Amino acid sequence: MAYEVLEKITQFDGKGDWNYILRSSTGDQVVIASTTAATIEDLNLSNSSGRRGRLVFGHYDLVNAYEGLSLGTNDLVYSAEQHALAAKSRRENLTFAGVALTHWPGRVYGGQFLSIRPDDSGYTGFSMVNSHPKFGSVLHLGDGRYVCYSLTGSEIGDDFAEITLEGRVGENLKEQGFPQGIDSEVKYRLQHGVLIRERTTINNTDMHLFVPTSDHGSYSPRLKAPNSSSLLIANALNLTLKLHSNGEFELDGAKVETGKKLDGQTDYDSGSSLRLPPTDFEHLYELVEPQIEIFNPSEEVGLRITADPRSKLVYTWKPLMDSILNAFVSIQPRCFPTGAAFLPSFNFPNDPKELLKRFHEFYVQTREFLIAPGERRTEVQTFEAI
Questions:
Q1: Which of 27, 333, 18 is CA-nearest to residue 165?
Q2: How many C-beta atoms lie closer than 10 Å to residue 269's C-beta?
Q3: 172: Cα within 13 Å, side-chain hemisphere
Q4: Per-residue confidence at 225, pLDDT binned at 50, 70, 90?
Q5: Which of helix, strand or coil describes residue 265?
Q6: Of 113, 118, 293, 371, which has the fewest Cβ atoms less than 10 A away?
Q7: How far, CA to CA in Å, does 93 sit from each of 96, 145, 160, 172?
Q8: pTM of the entire structure?
Q9: pLDDT digits (tens, 9 = 90+) for 276-332
Q10: CATH number, domain at 49?
């Protein structure tokens, strides 16, 4: 089996858009849009039965649906027009499709970013102007979600292809008071039909920082290349979701984490595989095991996501029926809850232990949450067809 790494560049709005393609001679392929949040734009893998699936609902799929385009008979090849339209789609709304990497994912209420002091004496932090005023919060770090990554290395072996990307988190938020010097390194490796991602956050600031991260992943496993008609048929209602939960955490009316665990059991506490409902589906589950499966029974192909072993939470979301976006389900594993960044401002910042009286222990920052100046934290995640 042979592997290769390809580079494709297009221009949009006077700026370059870089795609890196890792591909095997058997047809496995991943497309990474480095310029916008190191997004997984496309993922083509075969399962153990030899059935090949397009596993990610990417911006290519989104523009194909809206523009009435078709990928043609070879869904591993994209035209310059499709690339440019996908680049435009990513920059207009990054999290509508693909698998983007996000820092402080979800909503930070009031724009209050707090980190516990290493001596447990209280909190330090910074504030940002709310990017989502409707809900009084900063959503996906506002404009900071558009982290621009650059290729710093690539390697091809007998049984793998790998790229390394580097970017700086929040470098366009300096005027808002965002700390400068939070670096991000991402390695993508395609090997034996599995995509492996290592994401490393490096703290080059002078602060001890709490930096939660997650995917903002849009998934819709299917066999055929989509077009404007088939996309509406192969929607999320055809999919099943399997995970093993231990209850779920509360989201308020503004979709903000409250730090409270809900009473009672969930449908996924037994580790069941369940068809997604036609209603709005939005939950923040506690994970027993860091593994999630999305399966398309009618086409007998699916995706298994194995998150970092420290992942204790997963945010799941499926839009309402009356939208073309119901073609996917969004799955976002997290090692640390974003709500822990702002919830202390609602309690007693001078005594972190007091938080235990109001919030679940997941939301109480401890030293293990922090990345000290000069230190780094790495999270590993795999994607494979089932």
A1: 18
A2: 17
A3: 9
A4: low
A5: coil
A6: 118
A7: 6, 10, 32, 17
A8: 0.94
A9: 988 889 999 999 999 999 999 989 999 999 999 999 999 999 876 556 657 889 999
A10: 2.70.98.10
Instruction: For residue 201, list its beta bridge partners.
Output: 184, 377
At 16, the amino acid letter reads G
Helix (H) / strand (E) element for 233: namely: helix 230-233
Band (73; pLDDT cuts 50, 70, 90) = low
Token output for 137: 């919060």
- Domain encompassing residue 377: 3-385
In this predicted structure, the answer to whether residue 255 has a pLDDT above a threshold of 60 is yes
Say how far apart CA 29 and CA 34 lie, in whole Å.
16
Closest CA to 303 of 3, 42, 37, 39: 42
What is the tally of structural domains in the chain?
A: 1
**Distance from C-alpha of 140 to C-alpha of 107, rounded to nearest angstrom:** 6
How is 298-339 classified by DSSP, letter by letter? TTTEEEEEE--TT--EEEEEE--SSSGGGG-EEEEEESS-GG
β 39-46/29-33 pair status: antiparallel
- Whether the CB-CB separation of 356 and 348 falls below 8 Å is answered with no
One-letter amino acid at 110 equals: G
| Single-letter amino acid, residue 272 | S
Q: For residue 264, how many other CB atoms are within 10 A of its CB? A: 7
Q: Per residue in 29-58, pLDDT tens?
A: 999 999 999 999 999 999 999 999 999 999
In Å, how far from its chain's centre is CA 230? 25
